[in-house]
Amino acid sequence: MDAFVRTEVDDRGVGTITFFHPASNSLPAAILKQLADHVSDAGRRDDIKVIVLKSAGDRAFCAGASFDELVAISNEEEGLAFFSGFALVINAIRTCPKFVIGRVQGKAVGGGVGVASAVDHCFATQYASVKLSELAVGIGPFVVGPAVERKMGTSAMGMLAIDARSWKSAHWAAQQGLYAEVFDTTEAMDVAVDRLAAELAGSNPDAMANLKRVLWEGTEHWDELLMARAEVSGRLVLSDFTRDAIAAFKA
């Protein structure tokens, strides 16, 4: 199956945005751009009251950045362009006037942790362990860092960022605030996602938009901040250390 991003809307006003990539739902630049565009478009649509963000497949929510595109970056401009894709997604979710519910069915790595951190309310299964692997390949979680730190706190973000080769369990992530609840099965999680989405779809849209603005207060500078962080990653990815590390990681 080819990579895609699609939006489906039901008669309750629940808009479900699904992304997929055959490489464990990794996020190449084209998918990042589409994902940001779909979130922004859903935020403008009158027929959508609440958004559910999910990936297709079973045990991998999102593998983060596309390694194939990382090794193909040849200059700082290309590096900035690639990493700014993650900034676009996070900022699209941040500025969307509607609540975004995350559905994390499996492992989240790097940018996947960033996406899970950026949504307004996130459900997960017991298989949704997390890892910020960026330092292990010679860069760092600079672009997603503000979203992860906002959701989990500096201490938990530091644990993930520094111990870049270790997985943390879904239950650990829930204890740190990333997940609202962890379920034994995908089916049980989907019941909870559907229940909350239905409740929010019937809630006052003006009240929800104002509440979202309150919850995101203090992040108004993220348009500039995340792009500055993308420049750092775009520069680091060009180093010999990073290229060798990515090659070894892929092998």
Short description:
The protein is α/β, with parallel strands linked by helices. It has 11 helices and 11 strands. Helix 1 runs parallel beside helix 3.
Protein described:
The chain has 251 residues and is α/β, with parallel strands linked by helices. Helices cover 50% and strands 18% of the residues. The protein has a single domain, classed as Alpha-Beta Complex (2-enoyl-CoA Hydratase, Chain A, domain 1). Helix 3 packs antiparallel against helix 10. The radius of gyration is 17 Å and the shape is globular.
**Unreliable residue stretches:** none
Give the helices and strands as they follow along the chain.
EEEHEEEHHEEHEEHHHEHHHH
Can you identify the CATH superfamily?
Answer: 2-enoyl-CoA Hydratase, Chain A, domain 1
Helix content: 40-55%
- Tally the helices: 11
Overall pLDDT level: 96
Q: Strand order, main sheet: write it out.
A: 1-2-4-7-9-11
End-to-end distance: 24 Å
Shape: globular
Structural class: alpha/beta
CATH architecture descriptor: Alpha-Beta Complex
CATH top level label: Alpha Beta
Number of domains: 1
What oligomeric state do these chains adopt? single chain
**What can be said about the biggest beta sheet?**
6 strands, mixed
